[in-house]
Design brief:
This protein is of the alpha/beta class.
Length: about 1050
């Protein structure tokens, strides 16, 4: 019989925790018992909160950490037994390092619970489930018989429930060791208490070992009264000397473990879950090897250092590796000659013929690779990097995977290496990936596994065998195995806090720790389990428990919303792409012709949540990714291929990023809140263009259009074969018709500058337009060429300046498309759109960059709205003359620096010494943003090429950057039109003067010399009475 620990109960404020630390360091099996009884804190036997915190800190710093047990009395034990409340245990005791909690359920200890009530036993079981990392101990005596008999009679009691045979209950009544209740008559770990003290502990222990009902068991002893002494001041206190004497007596006289001669003839206890244990799935192979049991114990010990941990893990891997590879396929050798000169018969001369792949799950699995390579030296090694987030059922995160693209068919056996299999979510994701890769057979090899993990793995992959050394029964609510061995990756490589959970934070706010009376009195924390309701309606209780399990297993907000009636829209009905996506209008003609639908592979299936991981990125040339065809600038839509960037086709994506740019974030919110069915696919048939745009020769030139998909408005026509195969392809352009009504147009009608014709402009001032909304789709090689840089430099900059949002910019050089999270553009067209490509038909055009303050709200600090409305007026006139007018509205707020930056610049301009000055206009932007402009007009002409523009007769812009970009792209500009001076607001004179001085086209209306530049000033700020003056 071995002694698990000896409980030294009754420590309180009278004891210096450092003295207790000395006991724990000398005898690691000594356990300090702390009594908790609300209302008596700070009195004898019941320590204060401050002292408990000091003890917890001391326990954490002791080597090895002190064992702590909480003994709940009074309302603290009633909270658990009557209310089912565990917050004090879960949020205070467990973080402080208490790993055992004794429920003192007797009247003498202040317990008022009716132990005959079935609800009390159910609350104990719920406590065990709620705090699996804590062992709950129930006093077993005549008074508590109704409770402990009910618990002992459970068909499958919790693994963290124990009984303490204690007839004394703190009264000092001595334990009769010879007649002590059998430790084998209940299916629970047991301990003994009663009248133990330094002078009797050794003899009691010897006598217990002679007791047939106790001998051969693992027990603990607990004592309280025998450790107290009355001092000279008449006060009774915990006596550290007696506590030391108890441990010394065990050490010197009885021994903590049964002498070896008593064990020599006894068979070794079969490890839990080993051999033919029917409770485990048939796929589990648990070793019963004595040496392995010894080695695993060394791994579990938190005192084992990283160097020793690595060495032991290698040894264990060796032992298990031979079992895993016992049935590998072999082939006969005919060239083996023994030293005797005799050929070894082929039946005996064998070589390994199976092609083996080792698949360590990083980091921890790497510690098993070398040993396995010593067994199968020709095995390939394919690392897969995954980690599990907090939460038992969360999908793991895959951060690295470089499985060869086509190597699965050459793998006869894939051996997954992971020292610890807790929830098995990570292992299951790896197995699914290997099976999809084509591995003919998969086995898993680890050191420890949880029962839950083995069952889930066996259910998900009934053909995959799992080889482990031992099985643990418990998991925490975060999915950590108990007792486990800690984080094997941390312990292998000596990470901070390796091998030990952080028990107490020195910086914790004292108010964060819950005290027993807090939990009992706070109405927000009343138990969710009502005993009367449980007894009255067991079916309702079962339904509530089932719902709780479903919620606990949710891996996302979407799953949570799905479980709430009325919170999620019903799934979309089945689609028929041939009908739903049949285009109602066509624009492409022969260029939409499909050549051979059989060339298009079906979309790759996406694994479900239960069998997959969430990849942080993918890698070029690795298994899994199979991008859809993309030949930018090809001669037909079919040869070019569609842009595939939806979440339905993660393996077939041929673009980095997501549709809708920044609006994809709002889509994510809709998914998270349950408002959007992720399987919903739009019906595209009636969404086709309301006017014909293209096709044009520029669409087939990979250098002319690099920032938008020229086929993006006609996907149902251009990419029908992909839609019919089941691909989810989204338009990136929409073309429609609209009526535009502006007060400036009405004013121009009133003044006679515009005249209605009821074709382009109605009498009420409404103009008729064709408009197109365009989302950006960047062809990265072409974008890089526009800026004269190599593609890698562009990718690196995009990755870095988005704070690593898009790792595939780095890891997937084969993906040439990028859907940036920026605003797109809108094109407004007046007149006959079909005339735009004709260079002999008049065309008026303005390319306008967004300015919300002026365009929408009329701010007078710039010329944006006046110039925009002037351009619209000129476009209407041009359309009425038989030509066409184009206004392209780019979402490039504040010169693409953003509205916040723009307003900061406004403040600087107005507050600088000398006030708002044209001479300092660009310097202020440089001072705030580090650059004067990031609109990069070199990308702007793409939309004009999409429309087929070859000549612009009247270009409504003074910008030299825009003019240069358009003409360099091959589009001719005949006339540049400046804004009429009378349309420039007074406060915008600073802007127009500065721009003309720096090269903008001023025409005959604007001439700026140094004197004008220096003298042009803007309006001062109104006095700000709310702003605090500088100190």
């Amino acid at each position: 019989m071995s002694l698990r620990c000896v409980g030294l109960c009754g420590v309180d404020d009278s004891v210096d925790p450092s003295l207790l630390s000395a006991i724990g360091s000398r005898w690691p099996r000594a356990e300090l018992g702390v009594l908790f009884r609300p209302g008596r804190e700070g009195t004898a036997r019941y320590p204060s909160r401050a002292w408990c915190e000091k003890l917890a800190r001391t326990a954490r710093r002791t080597s090895p950490p002190l064992r702590l047990a909480a003994h709940l009395c009074g309302s603290a034990v009633d909270a658990v037994l009557v209310e089912g409340e565990t917050r004090f245990v879960r949020e205070t005791l467990a973080p402080w390092g208490f790993r055992r909690v004794q429920l003192n359920a007797t009247r003498g200890n202040g317990c008022t619970a009716d132990l005959s009530e079935g609800a009390v036993a159910r609350n104990v079981l719920r406590a065990c489930e709620a705090v699996p990392e804590v062992e709950f101990v129930v006093q077993a005596n005549e008074e508590t018989r109704p409770l402990w008999r009910r618990l002992a009679g459970e068909a499958r009691p919790p693994p963290n429930l124990s009984l303490l045979w204690d007839a004394s209950c703190g009264t000092g009544l001595a334990l009769d060791a010879a007649r002590a209740p059998s430790a084998k008559e209940v299916p629970l770990p047991v301990g003994y208490a009663g009248g133990l003290k330094p002078t009797t502990i050794a003899s009691t222990l010897v006598e217990l070992r002679r007791n047939p009902g106790v001998s051969g068991s693992s027990i603990w002893l607990d004592m309280e009264s025998g450790l107290r002494s009355v001092y000279a001041d008449g006060e009774e206190r915990f006596d550290v000397n007696k506590a030391w004497a108890v441990c010394a007596a065990i050490d010197d006289e009885a021994g903590w473990d049964q002498p070896l001669e008593h064990l020599s003839s006894a068979p070794r206890e079969k490890p839990r879950g080993g051999g033919g244990d029917e409770e485990l799935p048939p796929t589990a192979r648990v070793s019963g090897h004595a040496v392995l049991a010894h080695k695993v114990t060394l791994l579990r010990d938190r005192r084992t250092k990283p160097r020793e941990f690595r060495a032991i893990l290698r040894e264990i891997t060796f032992y298990l590796g031979y079992e895993v590879t016992a049935a590998l396929a072999t082939a006969a050798r005919h060239d083996c000659v023994a030293p005797s000169g005799v050929c070894v018969p082929p039946a005996l001369a064998q070589r390994l013929a199976a092609r083996v792949a080792l698949v360590p799950i990083m980091r921890a699995g790497l510690g098993m690779v070398d040993s396995m390579l010593a067994i199968v030296p020709n095995a390939a090694v394919h690392q897969i990097g995954m980690f599990k987030r907090g939460g038992t059922f969360d999908r793991p995160i895959e951060y690295y995977s470089r499985l060869p693209k086509n190597g699965g068919g050459k793998c006869d056996l894939a051996i997954v290496l992971d020292p610890v299999i807790a929830t098995s979510r990570t292992v299951r994701a790896v197995i699914s990936k290997l099976e999809a890769w084509g591995a003919r057979r998969v086995v898993v090899m680890g050191v420890l596994a949880s029962r839950h993990g083995l069952e889930a793995l066996g259910e998900s992959h009934p053909d995959v065998h799992v080889h482990v050394a031992q099985v643990d029964d418990r998991l925490t609510n975060e999915g950590e195995m108990l007792p486990g061995l800690g984080d094997p990756g941390d312990r292998l490589y000596g990470a901070p806090n390796a091998g030990a959970r952080k028990l107490f934070d020195d910086d914790d706010d004292e108010d964060e720790a819950r005290w027993p009376e807090d939990a009992a009195s706070d109405p927000r924390h009343l138990s969710a389990h009502n005993s009367e309701e449980d007894d009255a309606d067991p079916a309702a209780a079962a339904a509530a428990a089932a719902k709780k399990r479903r919620l606990d297993s949710s891996s996302s907000l979407a799953s949570l919303a799905a479980s709430q009636p009325g919170q999620r829209k019903p799934p979309s009905p089945p689609r028929n792409p041939a009908v739903d996506d049949a285009p109602s209008t066509t624009v492409l003609g022969d260029l939409a012709r499909a050549e051979d639908d059989d060339e298009i592979p079906p979309p790759a299936p996406t694994l479900g949540d239960e069998d997959s991981a969430t990849p942080l990125t993918t890698h070029d040339g690795s298994f899994g990714s199979n991008p859809a065809r993309m030949n930018w600038g090809a001669s037909t839509a079919f040869k070019r291929g569609p842009v595939v960037a939806t979440t339905r086709h993660t393996l077939n994506r041929n673009a980095v990023g997501a549709h809708a740019g920044g609006y994809s974030i709002y889509r994510a919110l809709a998914v998270a809140s349950g408002g959007l069915d992720t399987q919903a696919v739009p019906k595209l048939g009636l969404t086709t263009p309301a006017a014909r745009v293209g096709p044009h020769a520029s669409w087939l030139d990979p250098t002319k259009i690099v920032t938008m998909d020229p086929w993006g408005h006609a996907v149902s026509e251009a990419f029908g074969p992909w839609l019919r195969k089941g691909y989810d392809i989204r338009p990136s352009i929409a073309v429609t018709k609209a009526h535009v009504e502006l007060p400036e147009c009405k004013e121009a009608l009133r003044l006679g500058r515009l005249r209605p014709d009821n074709l382009v402009l109605a009498e009420g001032g409404t103009s008729l337009v064709t408009k197109a909304a365009i989302e950006p789709v960047w062809y990265l090689p072409g974008v890089a060429a526009r800026f004269g840089v190599d593609e890698r430099t562009l990718r690196d900059a995009l990755f870095s300046e988005t704070n690593s949002m898009y790792p595939e910019l780095i890891t997937r050089p084969d993906l040439k498309l990028f859907l940036p999270p920026i605003g797109g553009m809108t094109v407004y067209i007046w007149g006959d759109i079909s005339t735009i490509p004709d260079p002999d038909v008049e065309l008026t055009c303005r390319v306008h960059d967004e300015c919300n303050g002026s365009d929408v709200f009329g701010s007078d600090i710039c010329t944006c709205r006046p110039y925009l409305t002037h351009a619209i007026e000129e476009c209407i006139k041009c359309a009425q003359r038989g030509g066409a007018g184009i206004v392209v509205y780019f979402r490039k707020e504040g010169r693409a620096l953003g509205e916040v930056t723009k307003y900061l610049v406004y403040n600087l301009r107005k507050r600088q010494e000398g006030g708002d000055s044209a001479a300092e206009y660009f310097n202020c932007t440089q001072a705030v943003a580090g650059v004067t402009d990031t609109r990069f007009q070199a990308l702007m002409p793409d939309v004009l090429h999409w429309l087929g523009v070859t000549r612009i007769h009247r270009f409504i812009s003074m910008s030299d950057l825009k003019y240069d970009a358009v003409t360099k792209s091959g589009i001719e500009i005949l006339e540049r039109v400046e804004i009429p001076p009378d349309m420039v607001p007074a406060d915008a004179q600073v802007e127009i003067t500065a721009k003309v001085a720096h090269g903008y086209h001023g025409g005959k209306s604007y001439e700026v010399d140094d004197k004008t530049l220096n003298e042009t000033k803007g309006r001062d700020y109104y006095p700000d009475t709310n702003a605090a003056p500088p100190s």
